[in-house]
Write a structure and sequence with these properties.
The protein is an alpha+beta fold. It has a single domain, classed as Homing Intron 3 (I-Ppo) Encoded Endonuclease, Chain A. The protein has one helix and five strands, in the order E-E-E-H-E-E. It has one helix at 41-50, and strands at 19-20, 26-32, 35-40, 58-62, 75-79. The chain has a three-stranded antiparallel sheet with strand order 1-2-3. The chain is globular. The termini are far apart. Residues 5-9 have low confidence and may be disordered.
Length: 81
């Protein structure tokens, strides 16, 4: 490990951002204007590609069921049951 980085710092360059929540989704947190905001990585990935996130009852879903596989080819718009 590069000695310039504190070993206690989980923000190591090259690592995957965020954490996996209790439901298996990758979540990215950021403080903006003093407030903590949580963003699901699949929504962020979809937005980066398509410049929108669908409104309820539509949602971004994973084709293979792996909630941490946020490859754009694995994401699609589906309807909440």
């Amino acid at each position: 490990m590069d000695k310039r980085y504190d070993k206690r710092d989980s923000r190591i360059p090259g690592s995957i951002a965020g954490y996996i929540d209790d439901e298996g989704y990758r979540v990215i947190e950021q403080v903006f204007n003093g407030e903590l905001h949580k963003v699901y990585a699949h929504n962020l990935r979809w937005y980066m590609e398509h410049k929108y996130v669908p409104d309820y009852p539509e949602t971004i879903m994973h084709r293979d069921g792996d909630r941490d596989n946020n490859d754009i080819k694995n994401l699609y718009v589906g309807t909440v049951k």
